[in-house]
Design a protein that fits this description.
single chain, 4 strands, two-stranded antiparallel sheet
Length: 67
């Protein structure tokens, strides 16, 4: 499993970035708004970030290796 950010629900608080033990969450600029993205090759799927995210639906787990 991996985690991705759903921009429609993300409030750009940065708690996912602060809590990620792998430093897989990185800032990115989208127009004038600061947003974050999870780099799939750095995400181990530990899901620690899910515990800290205050915005329901902002972090989404997905199967990174569909069989």
């Amino acid at each position: 499993m991996k985690v991705r950010i759903d921009d429609a629900h993300c409030i750009a608080c940065g708690l996912c970035r602060e809590s990620c033990p792998e430093s897989a969450v990185h800032p990115r600029m989208q127009d004038v708004h600061h947003r974050f993205e999870v780099l799939p090759h750095e995400c181990t799927g530990c899901a620690v970030c899910l515990e800290y995210c205050p915005a329901p639906g902002a972090l989404v787990q997905y199967d990174a290796d569909p069989a």
